[in-house]
Write a structure and sequence with these properties.
The protein is α+β, with helices and mostly antiparallel strands. Helices cover about 35% and strands about 25% of the residues.
Length: about 725
């Protein structure tokens, strides 16, 4: 073995070895083992001390350095507890592992080599030369530069330390699959195969209380070691056969109390299962086996059984009473971690369902849209409050909305849903993007109020939102932003880049910091590509946010006009989003199409008494050119007459009359400089005014008002 290096070295191996040099006694078992190895006496290394000296003599820490081929380059396993491990310089580290663990551990070692991220406190078995096994807590670290390779630290597991390390490892993730996998890996110290079978309701995040006994559906959540199992064997993600679920449930629920059971040999197992099909599904291998089944119980009144842990071993290694107590203690200690993962799964599922519901379904005739939403990885704080939406407005325009609510979980999801629906309702009512953001700003402030707030301890202050409204006639986009990252626009022929959006501190900021929301207009010719997104797509600790937006702009500009937009959106997210997402990733791509030139007409008329007659003549002539049906033409002409007459009487001019042929319908608009809102009255017999709006109401499929910088526009839609 290598000598202890100088304390000045900074590699993980040298730091561990330096610490070992302070505590490993010289003389006794350690010196004898070292001397024997230096003289080539392999036999000394095979002997395991039966009664190691207590206190300082019983050290449990060791370190091994590996090169990039996973071969041992240096080794410091001088503690007596490691005697018998054949760790020879130049040999492969995986030779120390049980054969069934080699694929999993090799994958972990390679992963640390590639990413540099450590893998800490893995409960692992190592093979001694005499065939016995040593249970250790193994951590894998990248070697410090300029060295290459890995440093593997080993802590020999005393019983209490083993239980503590296993519980610590199991509680590091909120993902139910990873939690079950960690528990199975810890249980492997007591057997050859370990499996975790969870109630299906636990796997999906549902509750399991108040259910009838016997109606249990188990799903395999974890299985170790990782190997290719024969056909018919239940693998992770598979449901156990119904008969097996009932048998396991009845076995561990004896007398309505969850209890551990041990089946000592293959003959007894076959007798209990009673079917070759169930034997193939549950028994790992043809050798004689024994199994211990330990229920995962959540304390309560009554206690709730979450599932069952199964530890399989050879029949020539029967389970001792102390081992069974250890298994029960470990499973009991970690059952609450499984329940926490179940609760996280339930919240994750609920929030994700809401997120999916808010995704746009269609872009309409004048714009093509595609969206991608990817939640944060399961071990993060939870699904966030990102949302995107696109929807056609009643007046023929299209709204594109993206937002990012502060926080994660149900509080953020509820706020996200409220803001999304409120934005849609206000935009459909004709409000401009800046006016909508003013309302959302007030809503976020109200939600944060202690008396009327959404949830105690949650605040949405600082949430961001960006609203873009596309006009398919003028081919312009009106944009307003509340603290959100700027959209990226790629016009035909380029260049691509973020839009110059006036910054704003966000929604719900302090009153003294609030600024009026601006509306900025940008040209978006047909064929332009617009990308709205949240920060999870462009944020990277290694680069600035401006560089991230620049990468997005380059990627969007590479989308070909003939590329299908959904595939292009997925490709952009795959290329730009980080593998392990600490935040949600949201992208909305919109390819603007607009109306054809021959499908629209606009006239400007002075606000004179003959304006209505002039408008009737112009509209009637165009509808004849479009070969519109006579009854539809008469309805449109009459409505235009009423709207122009009202504009001349109540608003003043100049007036703008616009006619649009949209798919299977027609849309007419009359704009004026007035700020009064036309209202549909009750139309009592003696009323002088308001009758024209009742005519408009009856002759159209829908009508409404939207506000502009210079006045208002009254629009009316007709079916053909």
């Amino acid at each position: 073995m290598d000598a202890t290096p100088s304390p000045s070295s900074s590699s993980p191996f040298d730091m561990v070895s330096s610490a070992l040099g302070q505590y490993i006694p010289r003389g006794g078992a350690a010196e004898a083992a070292g001397s024997a190895v230096s003289q080539g006496d392999r036999a000394a290394r095979q002997r395991v001390p039966a009664n190691p000296t207590p206190g300082r003599q019983e050290q449990i820490l060791g370190a091994v350095n590996l090169d990039r081929d996973l071969r041992i380059s240096r080794c410091n396993l001088d503690a007596p507890v490691f005697a018998g491990l054949d760790a020879v310089t130049g040999s492969s580290f995986v030779d120390l592992l049980p054969p069934g663990d080699v694929p999993t551990v090799t994958r972990r070692l390679r992963q640390v080599l590639e990413t540099g991220e450590p893998h800490v406190a893995r409960v692992q078995r190592l093979r001694r030369g005499d065939g016995s096994e040593l249970v250790v807590s193994m951590s894998i670290l990248a070697a410090a530069a300029p060295q290459e390779g890995l440093t593997v630290t080993l802590i020999a597991m005393a019983r209490r330390l083993h239980l503590y390390a296993a519980e610590t490892a199991i509680g590091t993730s909120l993902d139910i699959g990873e939690t079950a996998q960690s528990l199975a890996e810890s249980l492997l110290a007591w057997g050859d195969v370990a499996a975790i079978d969870l109630d299906f309701a636990v796997w999906t995040g549902e509750g399991v209380t108040g259910r009838q006994h016997g109606r249990v559906r188990l799903r395999r959540a974890a299985l170790v070691p990782d190997r290719v199992w024969p056909d018919g064997y239940v693998n992770p993600g598979d449901d156990l056969p119904g008969d097996a679920s009932r048998l396991l449930s009845l076995a561990i629920r004896r007398d309505d109390a969850a209890q551990a059971i041990v089946i000592p040999d293959r003959e007894a197992i076959e007798r209990v299962l009673g079917s070759p099909r169930l034997v193939r599904a549950l028994v790992p291998g043809d050798r004689a086996v024994a199994v211990a089944c330990i229920p995962l119980v959540l304390d309560g009144t009554p206690p709730v059984v979450l599932g069952v842990a199964e530890v399989w071993r050879r029949a020539d290694r029967p389970f001792g009473d102390s081992e069974l107590l250890d298994l029960q203690e470990l499973v009991a200690r970690t059952s609450h971690h499984v329940d926490l993962a179940r609760q996280h799964q339930r919240e994750h599922t609920q929030v994700l369902a809401l997120q999916r519901r808010l995704l746009p379904r269609t872009g309409g005739d004048t714009i093509e849209t595609a969206s991608v939403y990817q939640p944060a990885t399961p071990d993060s704080a939870g699904v966030g409050g990102d949302w995107v939406n696109s929807f056609p407005l009643p007046d023929g325009r299209t709204a594109l909305v993206v937002g990012d609510v502060v926080g994660h979980g149900l509080g953020a999801a509820a706020t996200m849903g409220q803001l999304s629906m409120e934005a849609r309702a206000l935009l459909s009512a004709g409000l401009a993007p800046d006016e909508v953001l003013e309302h959302l700003d007030e809503t976020v402030t109200l939600l944060d109020d202690a008396d009327s707030g959404l949830a105690a301890g949650y605040s949405a202050l600082g949430s961001t939102c960006c609203i873009a409204v596309y006009d398919p006639v003028s081919h312009r986009v009106a944009l307003s932003s509340a603290g959100h990252l700027p959209p990226v626009l790629v016009p035909p022929g380029g260049p691509a880049g973020p839009l110059a959006v006036h910054p704003h501190p966000g929604l719900g900021t302090e009153f003294a910091l609030r600024e009026p929301f601006d509306v900025q207009a940008f040209a978006a010719p047909p064929g332009s590509l617009l990308a709205l997104y949240t920060d999870g797509l462009v944020e990277d600790p290694a680069i600035s946010i401006d560089e991230g937006i620049g990468r997005l702009a380059d990627a969007v500009s590479a989308v070909h006009p003939w590329d299908a937009l959904p595939q292009a959106a997925r490709g952009l997210v795959s290329a730009l989003a980080p593998v392990r997402r600490r935040d949600d990733v949201t992208l909305l791509l919109a390819r603007v199409i607009g109306y054809r030139k021959g499908d629209t007409a606009t006239w400007r008329l002075p606000a004179r008494d003959d304006a209505a007659a002039r408008a009737r003549m112009l509209v009637s002539g165009l509808l004849r050119q479009w070969h519109t049906r006579a009854d539809t033409r008469d309805r449109v002409v009459l409505v235009v007459d009423e709207l122009v007459a009202n504009a001349v009487r109540f608003a003043g001019g100049p007036l703008t009359v616009r006619l649009i042929r949209a798919g299977h319908g027609l849309l007419c608009e009359v704009g004026d400089t007035g700020n009064g809102r036309p209202r549909l009255g009750r139309n009592e017999p003696l009323d002088d005014g308001g009758r024209g709006l009742h005519v408009v109401h009856r002759l159209t499929t829908r009508w409404g008002v939207r506000w502009t910088d210079t006045g208002k526009v009254v629009w009316a839609a007709f079916g053909t």
